Amino acid sequence: MTQYKAPLDDLRFALYDVLGAEATLTALQGGDGHTRDLLDAVLEEAGKLSEQVLAPTNASGDEEGCHFDKATQTVTTPKGFKEAFRQFAEGGWAGLTMAEHFGGQALPSVLGTATTELFQSGNLSWSLYPLLSEGACHALELHGNDWQRERFLKPIVEGRWTGTMCLTEPQAGSDLGLLKTRAEPTANNTYKITGTKIFISAGEHDLTENIIHLVLARLPDAPAGSRGISLFIVSKFKLNDDGSLAARNAVAAGAIEHKMGIRGSATCVMNFDAAEGYLIGQPHKGLAAMFTMMNAARLAVGVQGLALSERALQNSLNYARERLQSRALSGAAFPDKPADNLLVQPDVRRMLLTQRAIVEGSRALLLYTALQTDIEARATDEAARKQASELVAFLIPIAKGVVTELAQESTKEALQIYGGHGYIAENGMEQFVRDARIITLYEGTTGIQAADLLGRKILQLQGVGLKYFMQEIAAFCQQHAKDESLRSLIGPLATATKQWGDMTLQLAQRVQANPEELGAAATDYLYYSGYIALAYMWARSAAAVSAGNQTAAFKQAKLDTAGFYFSRILPRCLTHQAAIEAGVGSLPTII
Amino acid sequence: MTQYKAPLDDLRFALYDVLGAEATLTALQGGDGHTRDLLDAVLEEAGKLSEQVLAPTNASGDEEGCHFDKATQTVTTPKGFKEAFRQFAEGGWAGLTMAEHFGGQALPSVLGTATTELFQSGNLSWSLYPLLSEGACHALELHGNDWQRERFLKPIVEGRWTGTMCLTEPQAGSDLGLLKTRAEPTANNTYKITGTKIFISAGEHDLTENIIHLVLARLPDAPAGSRGISLFIVSKFKLNDDGSLAARNAVAAGAIEHKMGIRGSATCVMNFDAAEGYLIGQPHKGLAAMFTMMNAARLAVGVQGLALSERALQNSLNYARERLQSRALSGAAFPDKPADNLLVQPDVRRMLLTQRAIVEGSRALLLYTALQTDIEARATDEAARKQASELVAFLIPIAKGVVTELAQESTKEALQIYGGHGYIAENGMEQFVRDARIITLYEGTTGIQAADLLGRKILQLQGVGLKYFMQEIAAFCQQHAKDESLRSLIGPLATATKQWGDMTLQLAQRVQANPEELGAAATDYLYYSGYIALAYMWARSAAAVSAGNQTAAFKQAKLDTAGFYFSRILPRCLTHQAAIEAGVGSLPTII
């Protein structure tokens, strides 16, 4: 069984010392009250809920899994999930970042990101039920009309219902242009939705009395491909005029998937059989509407990588402290014990520092990105909003793509420290590896993130976000150019960032000559960008320790991990650069 | 459900064209008959057994798992395992490489390695039952007396019984010096063995009527630590004088583990309660005796990495061929279909070529190493035997450590190509990832392999094996220096090999000054060495295509993959070099 303690000190360090979130947030529109005191109080409550209610259901939920009853087409979630959701709803967590007039608390997104980390560390499977609601809320908020919001959004914000996002079909995964689900208009301004959706998280469950599905489908006159897709609301139960539940709608789960991990999350096949639906937004503009919530969803999946890695690290560090095996290379460190602990082994420290560098670097990057979404939404200055918006667009594929991939490594190393004991289910480490394996796949595979970064954010949008980001790094480097204590970080960061810019320009030219070069370079470019972004976060973390009021040991750990990152992780860029330079000629046709 | 087809063409290419195994084997003592015809016939039969009998039980065996009955302390293996073992035994596979006077067929080890790949691809969990027997056979052959061999070895060679290796205890994993199991001498020259062993593969099962345990334990007068360990034979059933089974011995399974993968393999807690045992070899020399079989066991685990990666690659390649999704970057490749297949995406080819480079490079390296074990055992020239022995000692930690780690990447990329469908149990890809996760842990973790390579094989033994290996690479490079078609491979190979030698010397000096430097560099040095070894195998593969009689497409695929390896995988050495140079200063104390 694994332990979990909410890493509040690390979260506060990242939020306040590294990112200066308090000053930023209180200067935003509606941010007067978003002081450190308020934020800290929220983080503490979220930490308690996660430690006390969610964390204990993580292993049992995995073992028990969800159960589907074919006769009634109902899903039973694992023991404890329903009660946890009740407490979550009662605590107002479902509406944490939603506007007050929908019943939310209008707290900053960056705080939502921080609390999401805590909940996901507690129980990733469970956290998927409210996560999908969040996406549905955003869609309804941005694209629904007043009647739709009143009717469908408010109950989700209150935590009485949950939402889903129904995109994927058997023949339409990464390529949603291939989807076939049909929507036929009826006389009363509703639509009959017919088709089969797969991989629908929280498509059916027993946590709430109703579920609101947001469904992509084609109208009869829809153009082929991705420009002919519209977005619809389909409620599990039809509603009476007063919003109370009426008869079942013609939508039901046909099966749940048996998966490698996140076994407490109900991944459903959803059958729509002329189900009553309401169009949201404009006809044929459904994909664009979906994409407006994609950023939030992708950021949240990046946070899943952080959340799993954090909990895996906590446990592997404890194990390395307590497991006695062999002696230090330079002689017994604990001669009065039968053997030394694993921490005396430099190779074990290498695995632990790798995890730390990934976890804390990822946390800073994710919170940095989330903070930009707050600036984007609520800065008083339009130019600031615009710049933040570009930064978000640019950083999302990195935050999702790289953090989720690094979580594979991080959870793997955590298991490795346990040796053979890591492979045994009851020790809990293997669940993190299994759970983590989904996050490079859903909400856009790593390849999709890479294509989004290089193809859309760099080439199509001419790298505006990249330029802002590089300018910010350059300013940071200049600001600290004379800081002796940061010398070993600032120089390499400035050099690597310069190379990043040069490489991007060269690559853009090559892609112009041959579009296939985009696909040949994209994933390595994604990693390269991610390692620079994390280097920037680690340099900022190292720069931040001088001002903070933490213990000397806490500060030293940050400086040590920053040094480790720069000397042993950042050099991975060399490999990715070589791969990028190899070009599409290195990827010949396969028959 | 996944498919499997024995990769006989690739095996033959590696064996005959790349490694010249026929000429080598027929020149060895007792090797007259070991012609290509004979080897091919054996490979074909092994392929049939794997495809037809083992492969169909892989997914079902995982789903069903092993069942332990507490009352009778018996294990029921999954459906089909017993019948498969019967066919395996009847085919004489259990004694394939064992001496004829024990009932074996005395075929070369390299052939055993090749057939082991086929069986492990078919069903890794199942293959662990005969694998552990092999280790026990080697121990009995090398260290048992005539009476012990007659009594215990022959029935295993005949496939009537199986064997185990009982090393690990709860407090003694990587550090066997900590083990506590006791052996007390009795009047009749036997010993009473008492203690608990964990993680015992095939410790209890229903495939055969008896099981022979090889158990590490301490005699009453044993010195503390690893120099006080002896090796004992404990038979599940005591034997009558004629070798027939008598009463149960006081050894039994107490439980089986619930594991992340290899769920068809019974991983047992074994309780010895004054069980009757026989000492093998000298008192207190048990660990040395165990180590003589370690090479074979570690090589076989390296082969597991290959076997899983091969099957995962076959399926991900098929999927990439058949799955229609999106269009090629430079325009529709299959305009008459609703979408192009995944193969048109350079990023998907990158994932496939990564797998191919790992799979076929690993196969060549493992067979090369196995061939050296045949030379070591049966060359007519003593100097050749000595050199092969040094090469084997040097290559085993690489073959085990690096191939198993690369199998993590390879199986992960195979799953990734399936997108979300890779996460669904019934598609079978996630089982490869789960099964693969054990192989970097058992038979010595990657950290243990790294320490063995750098600490023992390079520094203690003064790198004799490395020198032979580097000389061989240098000779190969010189031989092909003027070959235009290999120019892009030979130059980088020669340069990288030179750097490897230089780095090794520098590292040796640093370790002399501070032994902690060994642990700080070992794992990165292991990877670095592995990537050079694979580069050599790929250069040899590219050089071999000109002489072979395969199709042009087959040859082109080898050249393409070699080019891919050199341009996109070999540069990983840059990162590992930087990490090695960072030294132990980059791995500060963690409290």
TrEMBL record, chains A, B:
GO terms for molecular function: flavin adenine dinucleotide binding; oxidoreductase activity, acting on the CH-CH group of donors. It catalyses: 3-(methylsulfanyl)propanoyl-CoA + oxidized [electron-transfer flavoprotein] + H(+) = 3-(methylsulfanyl)acryloyl-CoA + reduced [electron-transfer flavoprotein]. Residues 285-452 form the Acyl-CoA dehydrogenase/oxidase C-terminal domain. SUPFAM superfamilies: Acyl-CoA dehydrogenase C-terminal domain-like, Acyl-CoA dehydrogenase NM domain-like. Residues 165-273 form the Acyl-CoA oxidase/dehydrogenase middle domain. InterPro entries: Acyl-CoA_dh-like_C_dom, Acyl-CoA_Oxase/DH_mid-dom, Acyl-CoA_Oxase/DH_mid-dom_sf, AcylCo_DH-like_C, AcylCo_DH/oxidase_C, AcylCoA_DH/ox_N, AcylCoA_DH/ox_N_sf, AcylCoA_DH/oxidase_NM_dom_sf. Residues 43-159 form the Acyl-CoA dehydrogenase/oxidase N-terminal domain. Gene3D superfamilies: Acyl-CoA dehydrogenase/oxidase, N-terminal domain, Butyryl-CoA Dehydrogenase, subunit A, domain 2, Butyryl-CoA Dehydrogenase, subunit A, domain 3. Signal peptide: none annotated. Pfam families: Acyl-CoA_dh_1, Acyl-CoA_dh_C, Acyl-CoA_dh_M, Acyl-CoA_dh_N. This is 3-methylmercaptopropionyl-CoA dehydrogenase. It comes from Dyella tabacisoli.
